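INFO  loader      accepted 1 record
INFO  loader      residues=269
INFO  predictor   begin
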Amino acid sequence: MRRRRWTWAVLAVAGMLLGVYHNHRVHHGEVNPITALIRGMLTPLQRTAHSTTEGASQFFATLTQAREALREYDHLALENARLKQELAQMRTVAAENESLRALLNLRPQLAGDWLGCRVLAIYPQAGQQTLIIDRGSRDGVLAGAPVLAGDGLIGVVERADAASSIVRMLTAPRMAVSVKALNAQKVSTGVCEGRGESMLLLNFIPPEAPLQAGDRVVTAGLGGKYPPNLTVGVVERVWLDRQYSVKKAWVRPAVDYERLSVALVKRGR
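INFO  predictor   done
INFO  writer      dumping tokens
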């Protein structure tokens, strides 16, 4: 107990002496070494705290800028997607307008009553190779009616329901149309057959016919089922079938079936 009192007394005296010493130094304009020591210890800590505060402020400012940049990126991405969609729609409309113009140019060359129609669905896969149009029996469309695009012959109505019809493409199996191959030297007559593939087989061309790649193939108009001079396609490869003594060729169809949107179908017989 007595030792503790002595300790407190010593500390009190030391404090008084330090106070007197500090006042004396300050009174004479001198620097207090204790104060200088404390300041020397605190200054680096203050600098570190200041740097940390500035670093934190800069970090949060950068984070805010990053969030704003992400929001701007999302906005630009949505705007880009919207513009792409509008461009695709404009291209679709432009392609449809071009098809309509081609049909209008074709219409005066056709005999009989023809109806404009829209293509509702397309099934170009092997084994199907059909499409559906929005005209049917109540519009006067019958099975066997030819269907045309601005580029040429599409095929024939396989079945007519009340408000729609199923059209069998030229490329489908068992489809056949009499044609003329328009070579510069001589026009040759044959038959284009569907084989269930993307190409048509041109058959029964005389072996001496000057058929070659690039020749245009059009309907011959024989039998009256199809109008004459409708484009069927273009010859791609020719060979001689020695077994049957005829020339044959692969013909690429003029019509791009997967891009069809409008067509003409003949009404009645």
